[in-house]
Design brief:
Chains A, B: This is RNA methyltransferase. Chains A, B: Keywords: Methyltransferase, Transferase. Chains A, B: One of its GO terms (molecular function) is methyltransferase activity. Chains A, B: One of its GO terms (biological process) is methylation. The structure is a homodimer. In chain A, the strands form two sheets. A seven-stranded parallel beta sheet of chain A has the order 8-7-6-11-9-12-10, sandwiched between helices. Chain A has a five-stranded mixed beta sheet with strand order 1-4-3-5-2, with helices on both faces. In chain A, helix 7 links the parallel strand 6 and strand 7. Chain A has twelve helices and twelve strands. Chain A folds into two domains: 100 residues, 60s Ribosomal Protein L30, Chain: A, CATH 3.30.1330; 153 residues, SPOUT methyltransferase, trefoil knot domain (Alpha/beta knot, 3-Layer(aba) Sandwich), CATH 3.40.1280.10. Chain A is of the alpha/beta class. At the A-B interface, helix 7 and helix 12 of A face helix 7 and helix 12 of B.
């Protein structure tokens, strides 16, 4: 029977709560907190190393099947009282299931990027729901991975994890504050680098030949890509639109851009 | 100087609050409530008939420019105290600007649909954020309009209005509980009717000839389209995907499907 934690002052709990709220503590520890029965099960199924599993007595009745899968790989297990679980939760109605997970080693170094795939590079994406949605779509479409450039929000934040529906556990991603120097590396390695811009004079995304491995750069919703990134890329592309182009939001435009990049590989006519 | 409303018991306020919370009251009155300086300004700019404008003294200082545009078309104007504004608000941090607006007359009758355009038909979309996002993308891509079939959530709900970024004010839409009988009407009028399905045996969306006016049917996130709708359509289409197809969410898949439908019209190669 796992140990019961009844106090919000418990050091293990305080540490897990801090992993949920503080990006710098996550980076320092190389750990992050996952919330929710299904998302924790996804982490286990995706081969994420689960250091600690916390669950409430209520959750053990409601999510027996999910918990069974998580328990098989979790290194430590604790039962927590609901008022303790509330401290770990980022949601209004917590399910009472949480895992402390280990970040993937080495996945954040751009030098490790695999050749031969198409990649998406994001600059300064601030909205966690947008970032999560883009990662989810990238995984669905079979993108090789995502480069997070500039000051994107942390992929390991509770909101991004949730919106990504677990894509964060499986999709390769690379943190790179300085995107301009990354473009130099991509060009050297034979990637085509394309900046997505809302400019009808740019090349239409539909006329791009995506035979060569390509990195597509997408900026944040309000400001788009920085001028330095646009200038460093080998070309600029745009989505031709008949309607009110300013209405296309960041995750929808990223979906269309990624789709065009993968269209032929996916067997599109 | 507009009249000041200081009481939450004021009948005008109670009625406006009910327009925000109750879809049946909205339908009965033919009115809806819009919240936020920018969204209310969008309504005014889009030619929506604004019956009543409410704003707080704080808002009049912060959103002077937006309010100026709204005031020019509003039929009645009231200043409200912050605790009264809170009653009208659907958000955590209200801006203190609200409009009671009139629904467009006749736009909900399928008989009024304009020929020669491509349309999107949604069945049983339950999530307001998803519905708003889809309407927003439809407007950006120049879709002729959206048919809301089965039991979709109300387009005039505060969450849909907000997520649509005002597309509800401009995009034609049609309410049609019985989609199967609507398909009969579309077929008679010369539209191609296509059901989007997650079935790799269906025709690839990339190989569809969209020369003829088409209505594309998209189901809800959990269950997809009903069997009756799929059977009634003239064909079924699917998005070919290399990755984890189950990861594509409703608004991203609707974006890709609409994009493919409009791709050639938009000048795609």
């Amino acid at each position: 029977m796992p140990e019961l934690i009844t106090s919000r002052q418990n050091e293990i709990i305080k540490r897990a709560a801090r992993l949920s709220s503080a990006a710098d503590f996550r980076r320092e520890q190389g750990l992050f907190l996952v919330e929710g029965a299904r998302l924790c099960r996804d982490a286990a199924q995706s081969g994420v190393c689960i250091r600690t599993l916390f669950y409430t007595a209520q959750a053990s009745e409601k999510y027996t099947e999910y918990l069974g899968e998580i328990q098989r790989t979790a290194q430590e297990i604790y039962i927590v009282e609901p008022h303790v679980a509330a401290l770990l939760s980022d949601t209004k109605t917590p399910q009472g299931v949480f895992c402390v997970c280990q970040m993937r080693a080495g996945s954040d170094k751009l030098e490790n990027i695999e050749p031969g795939f198409h990649y998406l590079a994001l600059e300064n994406i601030q909205d966690p729901a947008n970032l999560g949605a883009v990662l989810r779509t990238a995984e669905a479409l079979g993108i090789g991975g995502v480069i997070l450039g500039g000051s994107c929000c942390d992929v390991y934040s509770p909101k991004v994890l949730r919106a990504s529906m677990g894509a964060v556990f499986r999709l390769p991603f690379y943190l790179q504050a300085d995107l301009v120097s990354a473009i130099g590396l991509f060009n050297k390695r034979g990637f085509v680098t394309l900046a997505a811009v809302p400019d009808s004079a740019a090349q239409k995304i539909t006329s791009v030949d995506f035979q060569k491995p390509t990195v597509l750069f997408v900026g944040n919703e309000g400001n788009g890509l920085t001028a330095a990134v646009i200038a460093a890329c080998s070309g600029s592309v745009t989505i031709p639109m008949l309607g009110r182009a300013e209405s296309l939001n960041a995750s929808a435009s990223a979906a269309i851009l990624m789709w065009e990049m993968m269209r032929e590989k996916s067997g599109g006519a």
